Amino acid sequence: MRLPVLTFDIETLTDLKSGAHLHGLDLPEADLESALAKLRRQESGTDFQRLPLHEIVCISGLWLDENGLKLFSFSREQYSEAEILRRFFSIFDKRNPTLVSWNGSQFDLPVILFRAMYHGLSAVSLFDQGEIDTQKRYNNYQNRYHQRHVDVMDVMAMFNGRNFLKLDDAAHLLGFPGKRGDGAYRVPEYVREQQWQKLTSYCEGDVLNTWLIYLRFQLLKGQILPADHQHLIQSTIQYLYTQPQQAAFLSVWRETSKQTDFTQFDFPSSPN
Fold first, then answer.
1. Which of 19, 113, 131, 235 could pair covalently with 36 via S-S, beta carbons 3.0-4.6 A apart?
2. How many other CB atoms are found less than 10 A from the CB of residue 2?
3. Distances, alpha carbon 135 to alpha carbons 2, 5, 26, 131, 154, in Å
């Protein structure tokens, strides 16, 4: 496994201002969201908005390097959308991590690309495909079959959309916590009511589930040995004991780990 590794996830809301501009709507803000949802249903049969209309309210990540693990979040509690993106891009300016996501190729990275362009930002280290760094011609963050960005959902499906799984389902099947409720549907509520810890905790939970599935996939491929896999699992557990906002994740993980033979002994009887 090539270090550093950055597992990430984003949370979004509908960009009402851009949506009104796109569709030529002159409505009070309170009516815009339902109007945009209705237009989208007529257009595609789903409420899920076009990617450029997803305004980013949080980016969370789990960083692993030679010094260990670090969980972090950039949210609208402290930063504008543009500043969230700048801070995320700065990571790639300093290092070129292996990027890990769940459905990041089809959702997270395209949304990040559109929103960065909307704000007039540059993200050379993330979006260069060899024009500047010739090595990225052969291994960049956009190519589906390269290793610099591993979309775990995509690679586990063997790049076949018929085999895609939801993160929640994959995590539960492998003995991990999954999404733990309806948090994705409550993101607008979290933002509206300024429940920032609930927002970041939820986003970080998706990151952690993705990280744990990625470790299992690396074990499958022989990129890490069984002893290394167990060490990283235990390191993650011990690290999360120091992260109070993830107490619920740990509690659920302790129970779900009992559901498979492979994970049933992941948790010691008491934290060290």
1. 19
2. 10
3. 16, 19, 48, 9, 23
Average pLDDT, the chain: 94
| pLDDT at 30 (0 to 100) | 83
Percent of residues, the chain, with pLDDT higher than 70: 97
Cα 266 to chain centroid, rounded: 24
Q: Which residues contact 164 (CB under 8 A, 6 or more apart)?
A: 103, 153, 154, 157
Domains of the chain: 5-24+46-259 (3.30.420.10)
Q: In the structure encoding, which two tokens stand for residue 10, read together?
A: 């984003």
* Banded pLDDT at 1 (limits 50, 70, 90): confident
The H-or-E segment that residue 203 falls in is helix 196-221
Distance between CA atoms of residues 152 and 100, nearest Å: 7
Assess whether pLDDT exceeds 70 at residue 144. Answer: yes
Task: With beta carbons less than 8 A apart as the criterion, state whether 83 and 135 touch.
Answer: no
- The residue to which tokens 């760094």 are assigned: 133
**Token code pair at residue 61:** 């990540």
Report the distance separating Cα 22 and Cα 140, nearest Å. Answer: 32
Query: Which sign does the torsion angle of CA 235, 238, 241, 243 carry?
Result: negative
Q: Which of 137, 259, 158 is nearest to 217 (CA)?
A: 158
Question: Is 9 within 8 Å of 208 (Cβ atoms)?
Answer: no
Could you tell me the pTM of the whole model?
Answer: 0.95
Please report the pLDDT score of residue 68 as a whole number.
97
pLDDT of 184 reads: 63
Q: CA–CA separation, 23 vs 20, rounded Å?
A: 5
Beta strands in the chain (DSSP E): 5-14, 54-65, 68-75, 98-101, 149-151
